[in-house]
Structures are given as structure tokens and as C-alpha cells.
Amino acid sequence: MAGKPKMKIKKNDLVQVITGRSQDKGGDKGKQGKVIAVYPESQRVLVEGINRVTKHVRAGQPGQSGGGIEVVEAPIHVSNVAVVDPETNKPTRVRTRVETVERDGRAKQVRTRESVRSGKEL
């Protein structure tokens, strides 16, 4: 496969966790958060406040922060999250709509992402 794989979830999208352990059992299913980073190579996304793990950090050079235990977000697979519809505030799939727009007498194709649930632009 040449190039990097396509992903429908982009940075700064609001997403909801749709699979995994439920919240009453200490999981993240049903939680919403903003996408911080996207990793197309491994098909994973980093979501704010989701999949938090404890990380043991060794003390670094003098002048840097000391070691200890930090709680950080870990990447989650893109199939476990869905984009949140801006109108209904529920998870939805993403559709790409191609429109032909005329500017200065020239036809230009413009791609827009829209929600399958409500048809609103994302």
C-alpha cells in the first residue's frame, strides 16, 4: 500500500468512544473528547481525557522536571471512536461531499465533510 492510509477523523474533531469498557466499570465508553493528534500509520487517535494511563517517568537531567508517576492519554484505535454530530450531540459516520464551484469562470471541485445522521457540515 503506497502512501499513508486515509482516516475520516481529523485533529480537533469532537469524538465519542463507542466500544470498550463501560463508565460504571471504570472504562471510557460513552465519553466525549477532542482529538489531540492523529496517527494514520497505526490507525490511532489521541483523545483528550480518554484512555488515561499511568506512566512511570525516570528523573532527568538537573533543571528538568523530576521523575515520578504521571497520568497521560494513550492512543486509541480509530474504530473505537465516532465523530459527534454537531446537531444531535450523538455519534455519527462521516460522509465526503464533492461540489463543483465556479470561481472566476473556472470550475473547481470542493470537498466537504458532513454528518450522515443530520447532513450538517463538520
From TrEMBL:
<feature type="compositionally biased region" description="Basic and acidic residues">
    <location>
        <begin position="96"/>
        <end position="122"/>
    </location>
</feature>
<keyword id="KW-0694">RNA-binding</keyword>
<dbReference type="InterPro" id="IPR014722">
    <property type="entry name" value="Rib_uL2_dom2"/>
</dbReference>
<feature type="domain" description="Large ribosomal subunit protein uL24 C-terminal">
    <location>
        <begin position="50"/>
        <end position="120"/>
    </location>
</feature>
<comment type="subunit">
    <text>Part of the 50S ribosomal subunit.</text>
</comment>
<dbReference type="GO" id="GO:0003735">
    <property type="term" value="F:structural constituent of ribosome"/>
</dbReference>
<keyword id="KW-0699">rRNA-binding</keyword>
<comment type="function">
    <text>One of the proteins that surrounds the polypeptide exit tunnel on the outside of the subunit.</text>
</comment>
<dbReference type="InterPro" id="IPR041988">
    <property type="entry name" value="Ribosomal_uL24_KOW"/>
</dbReference>
<comment type="function">
    <text>One of two assembly initiator proteins, it binds directly to the 5'-end of the 23S rRNA, where it nucleates assembly of the 50S subunit.</text>
</comment>
<protein>
    <recommendedName>
        <fullName>Large ribosomal subunit protein uL24</fullName>
    </recommendedName>
</protein>
<dbReference type="Pfam" id="PF17136">
    <property type="entry name" value="ribosomal_L24"/>
</dbReference>
<dbReference type="InterPro" id="IPR003256">
    <property type="entry name" value="Ribosomal_uL24"/>
</dbReference>
<dbReference type="GO" id="GO:0005840">
    <property type="term" value="C:ribosome"/>
</dbReference>
<dbReference type="GO" id="GO:1990904">
    <property type="term" value="C:ribonucleoprotein complex"/>
</dbReference>
<dbReference type="GO" id="GO:0019843">
    <property type="term" value="F:rRNA binding"/>
</dbReference>
<dbReference type="InterPro" id="IPR008991">
    <property type="entry name" value="Translation_prot_SH3-like_sf"/>
</dbReference>
<keyword id="KW-0687">Ribonucleoprotein</keyword>
<dbReference type="InterPro" id="IPR057264">
    <property type="entry name" value="Ribosomal_uL24_C"/>
</dbReference>
<feature type="region of interest" description="Disordered">
    <location>
        <begin position="87"/>
        <end position="122"/>
    </location>
</feature>
<dbReference type="GO" id="GO:0006412">
    <property type="term" value="P:translation"/>
</dbReference>
<comment type="similarity">
    <text>Belongs to the universal ribosomal protein uL24 family.</text>
</comment>
<keyword id="KW-0689">Ribosomal protein</keyword>
